[in-house]
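seq as requested:
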Amino acid sequence: NLYYMDYKDQLIQTGELNDVGSSLMMNVDESYRAGIELTGGLKLTRSLSWDANATFSQNKIKNFTEYVDNWDTGEQDAFELGETDLAFSPNVIVNSQWKFAPAKGINISLLSSYVGDQYIDNTSSDDRKLDAWFVNNLKVEYGWKISLFEEVKLHVMVNNLFDAEYESNAWVYSYQLGGDRYKMDGYYPQAGTHFFVGIDFKF
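struct tokens:
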């Protein structure tokens, strides 16, 4: 799938938070999102299959003006930055699922996700960026029938199987003081390896 979306006054995140921790938004005059989405799968054997999807994109503001608080004057300084990347819009996203069914009622899946670099504001500045991450989850399901229920299914999920260290969200606030630029920022580290267990009863 090929796509191109041309926006007028797109509402986007600035990377800042308000006084209760909610994301601040703003409109930009002209912006676009364009890319290609790929989906595919292979049935390797009767019990083993692989499915994957990927998106490769460009997500741009055509002519971005950044406004930065000036603590010396109490006003805002404007910076014309030209074409920049939209915040929180990675250019590469890839998902993969290996699924193995060794016996009746048993499914084992390896779920993998890769998310490319993304900026946490709209300036395309490398010091305000989330690094790419790659995370794997393991899912095991076992289903069986008993007299009281049509099916009982047990789920076990191991998230972040290889204990990757990464952040998936962040915020930033920039300001001018004494002729220099500073920033305050915060990143949200995600959990290491952790587990979920659940059971479904189907009537």
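The first strand starts at residue 2 and ends at 17.
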